[in-house]
Write a structure and sequence with these properties.
Number of strands: 0
Helix content: over 70%
Structural class: mainly alpha
Strand content: under 5%
Distance between the termini: 43 Å
Shape: globular
Largest sheet: none
Radius of gyration: 23 Å
Length: 285
Amino acid sequence: MSRLTPTSERAIVRRSLIAIALGFLALFLLLPLVAVFSEALKQGIGAYLEAVSTSDAWSAIRLTLLIAAISVPLNVVFGLAASWAITKFSFPGKSLLITLIDLPFSVSPVVSGLIFVLLFGAQGLLGPWLQAHDLKIIFAVPGIVLATVFITFPFVARELIPLMTEQGKDDEEAAISLGANGWQTFWHVTLPNIRWGLLYGVLLCNARAMGEFGAVSVVSGHIRGLTNTMPLHVEILYNEYDFVGAFAVASLLALLALVTLVLKTLLEWRFDLHQGSQSLRGAGH
């Protein structure tokens, strides 16, 4: 009688586990997705196109893309700098920096939004100074950018830190010993080694930036045509019982999520292929 290994099971057990996983996938992912598109198209394609082509909807779409276009590059710069410092150097406060990177994962987005209100609001710590200099952060685009950057800044760094730790410092030290300066070492050695992990982090950061609701809701003020992102616009339409409009805009977010999922899968496959080729080259040497 053959003994079962930790990675082998009877066919009925395997099929049961697969059925349970597929059932949860259908219930919590596919069914809501189908519901969003069915409600969006409930009154026909004409009503759908009209809902997503209103001035408020276009304003929300433009603002969402603008916030992502600002916050993602900022997080790329921060993620690269933080991961480089943490993995390549030893310095006082290194463990504190790692803890601070994880802070947005442990703080509610609503709480983080309230922190910005307490700092930059009219009655906040810096509010009187901002008003005296005619600077507006809360209930304006700068506040939305700050909240989004705070919520999304762990994604790039958290993808790069384990990758750069695993790769070590040998390649960089070899390049420096051959006469390369710091920028040349980063551009020609470090960046090619981490490019797939970096792209993966950028993809996750962009998805969260476009879909963020809690923190943005607190600092935006819900001003139509000015500070409403796509998630906030969906909430307003739904509260006004404009279900077709709400689900139409929500379907655009769902499409963005699907595109993100496809790109994420492709990047994971390409990253695994890259790692496999590196392992083969290392074994050959």
